[in-house]
Design brief:
Chain lengths: 294, 541
């Protein structure tokens, strides 16, 4: 064999070996997995596996932040906070993928002790081996968000000083943004007078999502709050959909999440704006979606 | 003669100090436990009050109803009848604080014990007479001076909030050293303590407490000697008790140490008559006597014990003032016309009855998870000073919480379980359209509606026309209140982004407990709101 051919072969070969599996994987994996089933934990695991498994997002030794919605002093049956079993499943998967540390946190609207407890999330996450911390004013820092509209804001540093962040919202009705899904969930990482952001909520949501860059978004639609959001209260405000949607494209996750509310993605200005800025796809026809019941 | 201090009484004195430490710690632990316990029900953290006969009797006289929890006060009465004021010397946490600071001031040479003059020990009896007589006319002022109430209030709204600030600063320092994991640990413990840190009157209440503490520089246990109405009440009962001081006159060398060091001017000295009504059985005299001449013994035999030397004129004066105070306290319109700011906690009795029962102890303010309950200034009139009011600019009434109703020691706030509490209306929210962001600028804002905890929501977002300065019209969705669904919790006012003077605010009108403080006939329609709920459909679908 000539030296030149040898070098050429090795180069080409290693390129194929390196890039090959990834090209192959990308061509096969769906953009979104929407899994339905009886067990919230099971459908969460199935959904994440369907888009490549937690190993695709978490590297051994990573510090991981899981950001559920723990906003309200409500029980899981009231569908105001993320389903605790979904959070538990994610913590377990992150730990199995070799995460060094998994934190579960939110800055709630009601007192944190009450929301962490009544939502069942603190217990579920701790049981699965996560660190569950309350947000502290001492860890709040004004940071440059470099958003198009939102230039800077107070953020709890726990959400920044982490290797990977996973967004775990719950699908809920909301009178201003009509629904609250993944991108709205980022407001829970903020301190300061965040209530003022409602004056330009769509822009804030997009800037925040772009800033936090989740490696994975898992939308809990096991119970969906259809009325009186974002808190609900009565059983009639909620419907059981027994679904979890997982994806890396947060715009796409929100777009598919709208289906529970019979809203078309193109009717939600923030999805169009996010799409125009190149953050993701909201046209469901352009997305490869794996729908399954387990 | 053998000079030796009594080992027995030095041991008893040590036991007494241990007992005081124990009961003060118990008081503090119970007060720290007066917080969200992680479930809807809180244990009997207000237990100390139910052993307090002063609160029991004054509240009974003022409200003319007995709260059964006060059955323990009878135990205190019986113990005092038999053994004298041991509760003052061995149990009372306020007494322990006074004695501790007397000790500290003595060691610091700020207090030089001297023989009492007896002119002032009767003050407390006149104070007691004043409280009892005024309570006959349904004026309950016991809470201002009752030692447990005063101590709890001072700690709940003064000392603990100050400690809270110190802890918070310390945690900040830990984080600034970069030791994040330690800081995280402190934060979690700190958050779990849930100490409310903001009280409008915290400084004033603390200053009063420190004033009482500093009076110990003048005389040991100044408060217990001269001022404490509960001590006075127990002193009256203690006259016939069987634990008596006896001095062996053969041993006594007339050194006067016992009388000089006596904590409460009870005169444990042969030349004077020992005063059983003043003695709190601290046994300082027994342990300090250089010749072990002092002994306490049990004897049912009546002895020549000096009666409390109350001047008849002053008793009459106290009675007169107690009665006279009543009409003066009624000048304020608090009971005839509701104040808009007088938002009482859920379960609070109608105002008359509430003021007759509330002893201003601050338990409810300590337990409130949002710091919303604050000691009142003049909103409820002079006798409503330091009674709890909900101040939405500080906090709000958490929807699924009824802790304040469970810790109230006198039943001024009726005990409610969470299910019943969610049905209680404590006020009504109103919108100030001149300040509301959608109503004035035509911009979106939904914060009040978003936080409204009732379902269906009491705040509806309705499309309205808003005239702009340039004459154009914007059509935002603006908040409109359904006063019938509003429970007055105040979260809307608390969270409103127009922070200085919120564009939505709660006033007391419409509160369930009042028949007069209403603005619509039949405000709460009968029937199940869920079934005839006009909003049971989603307007956005």
């Amino acid at each position: 064999m000539k030296r030149r051919t040898f070098i050429k072969d090795v180069t080409v070969g290693s390129l194929i070996l390196q890039a090959g599996p990834r090209l192959w994987a990308q061509s096969v994996l769906p953009d979104l997995a929407s899994i339905q089933g009886e067990s919230p934990a099971q459908i969460t695991k199935t959904a994440v596996e369907a888009i490549g498994g937690m190993g695709r997002f978490i590297t051994k030794g990573d510090r991981v932040m899981i950001k559920p919605n723990i906003g309200w002093d409500r029980r899981p049956e009231q569908a105001a906070c993320t389903n605790p079993e979904v959070v538990r499943a994610l913590v377990e998967m992150c730990r199995d993928a070799g995460a060094k540390e998994v934190k579960v946190m939110d800055n709630p609207c009601n007192p944190a002790q009450r929301t962490y407890l009544r939502s069942g999330i603190a217990q579920a996450a701790k049981d699965a081996g996560a660190k569950v911390l309350y947000c502290s004013e001492h860890k709040m820092k004004k940071v440059d968000l470099n958003g198009e509209w939102l230039k800077d804001w107070e953020v709890y540093t726990d959400f920044i000083e982490t290797d990977k962040i996973i967004n775990v919202p719950i699908a809920k009705h909301h009178s201003l943004s009509r629904v609250t899904l993944g991108m709205k969930n980022w407001l829970g990482c903020l301190g300061g007078n965040r209530n003022q952001l409602h004056q330009n909520l769509d822009a804030a949501m997009i800037d925040l999502a772009a800033y936090f860059k989740p490696v994975l978004t898992v939308l809990d639609a096991y119970r969906v709050l259809l009325r009186n959001g974002p808190q609900g209260g009565r059983p009639s405000d909620m419907e059981v959909k027994k679904t979890v949607i997982a994806g890396t494209d947060y715009v796409a996750v929100d777009a598919l999440g709208l289906s529970f509310f019979d809203i078309k993605p193109e009717d939600m200005p923030y999805l169009r704006m996010a799409n125009e800025r190149g953050f993701g796809e909201f046209n469901l026809e352009k997305l490869k979606i794996e729908k399954r019941t387990v | 003669m053998k000079k030796e201090r009594s080992k027995k009484y030095r041991l008893i004195q040590a036991l007494r100090i241990l007992s005081q430490i124990f009961f003060f710690s118990l008081f503090l632990i119970l007060l720290l436990q007066t917080r969200f316990p992680g479930e809807d029900y809180i244990k009997n953290v207000e237990g100390f009050f139910h052993w307090d006969p002063l609160i029991a009797i004054v509240t009974f006289l003022a409200a003319r109803t007995m709260f059964t929890a006060f059955k323990f006060a009878a135990v205190t009465i019986v113990i005092t009848l038999v053994l004298g004021r041991v509760a003052c010397g061995w149990v009372c946490p306020m007494g322990a604080v006074q004695q501790f600071f007397s000790f500290v001031f003595k060691k610091a040479k700020l207090l030089h014990p001297r023989k009492g003059s007896h002119n002032h020990t009767t003050w407390k009896y006149y104070i007691l007479i004043f409280l009892l007589i005024s309570s006959l006319f349904s004026l309950n002022l016991a809470g201002i001076l009752d030692p447990l109430s005063l101590l709890t209030r001072s700690f709940a709204t003064g000392i603990l909030p100050a400690v809270n600030h110190v802890l918070s600063i310390s945690i900040g320092l830990v984080f600034s050293t970069g030791w994040t994991s330690l800081g995280d640990g402190f934060v979690q413990a700190f958050e779990t303590l849930n100490m409310n840190a903001v009280f409008f009157q915290g400084l004033l209440i603390s200053l009063i407490f420190f004033g009482i503490v500093f009076l110990n520089m003048h005389r040991e246990r100044f408060w217990c000697r001269y001022l404490c109405p509960l001590g006075a009440f127990l002193g009256l009962l203690a006259r016939w008790n069987i634990m008596k001081l006896k001095i062996d006159e053969n041993k006594c060398i007339n050194c006067n140490l016992c009388t000089i060091q006596c904590e409460t001017e009870a005169d444990p000295y042969p030349e004077a008559e020992w005063k059983s009504a003043e003695c709190v059985y601290c046994f300082t005299c027994g342990s300090i006597c250089p010749t072990s001449a002092i002994d306490f013994h049990f004897s049912a035999r009546p002895e020549s014990i000096e009666a409390i030397d109350l001047s008849r004129r002053k008793v009459l004066l106290g009675t007169f003032l107690g009665a006279l105070a009543v009409p003066f306290f009624r000048i304020h319109p608090g009971r005839t016309r509701a104040s808009e700011k007088l938002i009482r906690p859920p379960g609070a009795l109608p105002e008359d009855m509430f003021l007759q029962k509330c002893v201003k102890c601050g338990e409810c303010m300590k337990v409130c998870p949002t710091n919303a309950l604050q000691p009142a200034k003049w909103e409820a009139g002079p006798d409503g000073l330091w009674t709890p009011i909900l101040v939405p600019e500080i906090g709000y009434c958490e929807y699924y919480c009824s802790l304040c109703t469970q810790v109230c020691p006198t039943g001024a706030i009726e005990e409610l379980m969470v299910e019943a509490k969610t049905q209680v209306k404590i006020g009504t929210a109103w919108i100030n359209k001149d300040r509301c962001i959608p109503w004035i600028f035509g911009d979106p804002c939904i914060v009040c509606e978003e936080h409204c905890p009732v379902s269906p929501k009491a705040i509806k977002m309705v499309e309205v026309d808003v005239l702009q300065p340039d004459g154009s019209i914007k059509k935002p969705k603006a908040p409109v209140i359904d006063t019938q669904l509003c429970n007055g919790c105040g979260i809307c006012e608390n969270k409103c982004p127009v922070v200085d003077q919120p564009a939505i605010y709660v006033t007391s009108i419409g509160e369930d407990r009042s028949k007069k403080n209403q603005f619509l006939l039949d405000l709460k329609s009968t029937g199940d709101t869920a079934t005839n709920d006009p909003y049971n459909t989603d307007p956005y679908r």
